[in-house]
Design a protein that fits this description.
364 residues; alpha+beta; 5 helices; elongated
Length: 364
């Protein structure tokens, strides 16, 4: 017969059977456990060991669509008039110089996808400039070019490539939780900590979980300008691209799956964690998510982007082109910073001197 050593779920020390209480007790932390409780705990541990690896989620992709074909010489053929067009390999859309139609570019052998859906711009250029100008107004530590409004020329409208993930999911999660109770008597202060294993499970639907498909876009920036109103999604129409810059994705859907999966887990954890109440501490012990009916859509979403480089550092500021939500970081003029700091220091010294004279008859 194999020897089994039971360990304390709280501190990991070896447990011993106590004939007096008919329980397993821990000499290290003083906890006692019913045999049935430990049996259920061991079953849960074994079940979770079989799920140590998070499930690989499967996704269904939209069929490849047709666009402008590339010739052996590297030119593109306008699907409207048949003319040859020069375009950068990362260009998604351009205007045919012969028939003035907007042309969607794709290389026949690249495996690229034409966008399935898009959200047209709702915030106009003048509105975006006014929003950025209002945000910068009064910020005295910005570099000099921000004071003469010349920075506004760097604000451009982009259709940013996104991957939108849909699926039905069932999630199971377990949490380590504690409750504490404190009391005192005439001699001692006492603190009792009770430990719990809390299980939660539920089904949920995920609709259009976004992951940006551009390496140039910082993930924190694109996720901070969310949410988009996906009720305004429309079928891809090249006419909406006129007047804006549009690049094809350089993060493909397969590469974006990892971030989508993490966002699914984070959302499921947030929902299930919200049902675990009445404890002093709660930490995730194990999480499992099973998804089905997974679909991926390639979308273009509108973003006004302002980018600048100051002292060798790149700064990025974004405005949601549909809702107007703004996020980003702006540079600080170090010269102006020290100027104002010295000014405030001088004022503080004068104030302290006056107070010293008034209160103590001398200088502090």
């Amino acid at each position: 017969m194999d020897f089994v050593q039971y360990k304390c779920p709280c501190c990991g020390a070896a447990l011993q059977f106590s004939p007096g209480t008919q329980k397993l007790s821990c000499a290290s932390c003083g906890n006692e456990y019913e045999l049935e409780t430990l049996r259920k705990f061991e079953q849960e541990e074994q079940r979770e060991k079989g799920r140590d690896r998070e499930q690989e989620l499967n996704w269904e992709y939209q069929k490849e669509a047709q666009g402008a074909r590339r010739t052996a010489e590297g030119l593109y053929i306008c699907p409207s008039c048949g003319a040859e067009i020069e375009a950068d390999e990362n260009t998604v859309s351009t205007t045919c110089p012969y028939c003035d139609n907007v042309v969607v570019i794709r290389a026949a052998a690249s495996g690229a996808y034409e966008p399935d859906v898009m959200i047209p711009f709702q915030i106009k250029g003048d509105q975006a400039k006014q929003m950025l100008e209002n945000f910068c107004r009064g910020k005295r530590l910005l570099p000099r070019n921000f004071r003469d409004r010349s920075y506004l020329k760097n604000l451009k409208g982009y259709y940013v490539p996104y991957w939108l993930f849909d699926c039905d999911a069932s999630a199971e999660m377990s949490f380590n939780a504690t409750r504490t109770r404190a009391w005192s008597d005439s001699e001692y202060d006492y603190l009792e900590t009770s430990y719990y294993l809390v299980n939660r499970a539920g089904g949920m639907e995920f609709y259009h979980v976004p992951v940006d498909g551009s390496k140039e876009m910082d993930d924190d920036t694109t996720e901070s300008i969310e949410p988009f109103d996906y009720g305004a999604l429309t079928e891809f129409n090249p006419a909406y691209l006129a007047g804006y810059e549009t690049d094809k994705y350089d993060v493909d859907a397969k590469s974006a799956e990892g971030r989508a999966k993490e966002r699914l887990y984070q959302s499921a954890e947030q929902v299930l964690r919200s049902t675990v109440n009445g404890y002093n501490t709660v930490t995730v012990k194990h999480r499992y998510l099973n998804a089905k009916n997974g679909k991926v859509h390639y979308a273009l979403l509108p973003v006004w982007m302002f980018e600048t480089v100051y002292n060798g550092k790149k700064y990025q500021f974004a405005i949601n082109g549909q809702t107007g939500k703004m996020v980003g970081e702006l540079p600080v003029d170090q010269g102006a910073f020290w100027k104002y700091l010295c000014g405030f220091t001088a004022v503080g010294t004068v104030v302290c001197s006056i107070l010293g004279i008034l209160l103590f008859g001398g200088v502090l």
